[in-house]
Amino acid sequence: MNDARNGIGRSETEAYLAHAMELADEARRVIRAARARGVRIERKPDGTFVTSADIEVETRLRALVLARYPDHGVIGEEQAPSNPGADFQWIMDPIDGTEDFAFDIPTFGCILALHYRGQPLVGVIDHPALDLRVNAAYGLGAYRNGERVRPAWPATPAGAERVMLSARANFTRYMDDGHLFDAVARAFPNHRIYRTCFAHTCVAIGAADAGVEYHDRPWDLAASRLLVEEAGGQFALVRDLALPGVGRILSAVFGRPALVERLAALLR
Amino acid sequence: MNDARNGIGRSETEAYLAHAMELADEARRVIRAARARGVRIERKPDGTFVTSADIEVETRLRALVLARYPDHGVIGEEQAPSNPGADFQWIMDPIDGTEDFAFDIPTFGCILALHYRGQPLVGVIDHPALDLRVNAAYGLGAYRNGERVRPAWPATPAGAERVMLSARANFTRYMDDGHLFDAVARAFPNHRIYRTCFAHTCVAIGAADAGVEYHDRPWDLAASRLLVEEAGGQFALVRDLALPGVGRILSAVFGRPALVERLAALLR
C-alpha cells in the first residue's frame, strides 16, 4: 500500500504516541487546575468562545512539542502555525467545546494528533471532566482508558441508528447548507448533538453507530479518522474547502461502514 | 395564591425532600453496582430499551416509598401504578436515557418527583456517572450538589442561544410533527440534543438558556418544572395529550422566560 506512514517504524510510532499521551496528561492538569480556580471567558470576533484555559493549554503543549521535536510543525486553534512546511505536524484543539467548558458541561475535550505528510499517525481525544480518553496510533489499534476498543456496533433496527450530528448552526455558518442538516435529521431521527468531540469519542468506542461533522476546522477532525479506522470503522471526508478569510473547512462522516456510505450519499 | 401546595408546611416538605434524596442515593448505589457487574439489555415492544438495572431500581424505590408512605401513590416507567387515586404521587423514571446507559454514555439519570394534587412538591434529577445531582422543593429553592442554584443566564447574542432540543424522533414517534422540529432547529441553530434528562439539568443550572421536551411521558418531565421554576426560570406545558394505547404524553419548554415564550409560540 502506497502510504507514507508505512515508512515509519513501529518503535518510532510508539514514541510519538507516548509523547501525545504526555501532552494529554499535561492538558488535563492545566484544564483541571483552571476549572478549580475559575476561568475567564470571552467571545472571539467570530462569536465563538475562548477562555484563559484554552490559551494556557495550547501555549504549554506547543512548548512541549517544540522542545522535544524542534523541527516538527504545530497547528492549533488559538495561535499561528509553527514550522508550517514540516512533514510532521502536531495538530491540536486545546479545548474543543469551549462553550460547554465555559458552562461546565463535561463533554468538552482536548484533541491532539500527529500527522505525517497529511496522514494521521497518532490521535488522542481526552475528556478531563469524564476521566475518559481514547487514543490510537497507525497500525497499533484504538484504546479507551488503556483498553483495546473493538466496537461491536450491534445490529440496529432501521430508523433507530444512533447518529451523532453537527448542529444546524454548522450547516449555515459559512454558507446556507441548512437543507443538508434537514435531510440528515429526517433520515436519522435518533440523533444526538453534543457540539463537542465527545460525539467522535462515542463513535470510536461504538456507543454511536456513526457521526457527522460538518464545516469544521482541521483540528476538530485531526484525531477522529485514525480513532475510527483503528477501531474498525470507516471515515469519509465529504467536503474539503478553502474559504477566504477563514481557511480550510472539512466535513466528514465516520463510523459503521454501511452507515457511512448512506450518510455520505446524503451530504455529497 | 390558590395553590394546594401552600397548605403543606415547610417541615413536611423538607421531610419529603429528604426522602427523595435517600431514594436518589439508593438509585445511585443500585445503578453503580449494576454498571460494575454488567447490565442485561433488551428492546421493549415499542423499540425502546430496558435493562435489568431499570427494573431493579424501580422495584427498590417503590418498596422504599410504600414502606414509608403506604397511602401515597407511585407512578414509574417500568411497572403499573400503585394507589393511583392518592393525593401524593411519587413519579419516577429509574433510568432516563436507558439507551445511553446501555452504551455507557454518562448523561443518563434517575428522575424522581413527588406531586401533590397534580402539582410538583419535590423534584430530583441524579446523574450517577457524572456525580451530579439537582434537586428542588416547592418554595425552598433549587440546588446542585448541595449548592443553591441561581442561574445567571447571561445575555446571549440572537441566534446563539443555547437550546436543548428533543430529537426529531420525538416529533414523529406518535404523529408526524416533524415540521415543528424543523422550525425550532432553524430558529435556534445552536442546539444540543442529549436525549436524556441531562438536558433538563443543564437548563436548571443555567448551562443552557432553554429546553424543549416533545411528546414524552409524564415521568420524563416530572421533576423539571419545579427544578426550573425554583431556579428562577419559567416552565410552559405546550401540549398535553391522552393517546389510546400509550397514555398521557406531554410537551414543554422551559428556561429563561423570554426564550420560553418564543419557543412556546413556535410549538403551539
Protein model, in words:
The structure is a homodimer of 268-residue chains. Chain A is α+β, with helices and mostly antiparallel strands and 268 residues long. Chain A contains 9 helices and 14 strands. Chain A has helices at residues 10-37, 52-68, 98-102, 168-172, 178-187, 198-204, 218-221, 224-230, 257-267; strands at 41-43, 49-51, 73-76, 88-96, 109-116, 119-127, 132-137, 141-144, 147-148, 163-164, 191-192, 210-216, 234-243, 247-255. Chain A has a 7-stranded mixed sheet, sandwiched between helices. The longest helix of chain A has 28 residues, at 10-37. The mean pLDDT of chain A is 95. Chain A binds chain B through residues 43, 47, 99-100, 103-106, 130, 157, 160, 162, 165, 167-169, 172, 178, 181-182, 185-186, 189-195, 202, 205-208, and chain B through 43, 47, 99-100, 103-106, 130, 157, 159-160, 162, 165, 167-169, 172, 178, 181-182, 185-186, 189-195, 202, 205-208.
Ordered list of secondary-structure elements with their pairings:
Two copies of one chain form a homodimer.
Chain A: H1 10-37, E1 41-43, E2 49-51, H2 52-68, E3 73-76, E4 88-96, H3 98-102, E5 109-116, E6 119-127, E7 132-137, E8 141-144, E9 147-148, E10 163-164, H4 168-172, H5 178-187, E11 191-192, H6 198-204, E12 210-216, H7 218-221, H8 224-230, E13 234-243, E14 247-255, H9 257-267
Parallel strand pairs in A: 3-4, 10-11, 10-12
Antiparallel strand pairs in A: 1-2, 4-5, 5-6, 6-7, 7-8, 8-9, 12-14, 13-14
